[in-house]
Task: structure prediction
Amino acid sequence: MNLPKMLLPLASLVAFAAFGCGTDSASETPCGEGNECADGIARMSTPTEEQTACTTAADCTPVFAGEACSACVCANAAVRADARAEYQASFDEKRSACGDDPGASCVADCAQATAVCTEGKCELAK
Result:
């Protein structure tokens, strides 16, 4: 199929989403049961419901959620401040399983993130 050049990046993204580490339809967990990708290694880091429960914005702190092997791990989610150490330890364990160095972190390029408590759940301010 011949796609216009400006549609190629979009087509690549769609192909990655369709054939990459997809969602297991039975559990809706990224990469299947236990957040494992096709090679059986758990790399997806997602805060639990308990880790995101809150009463006020002061309860919450920004974290990265997603593919632990990503080079850029900017905050895109939030957890309870008292659950951050547990969440970070789990993320660090998954990141250590990446094999090759996932690349230099782009933390310096990350936008300042603010965590809020919305309807009893920590999330990033929009």
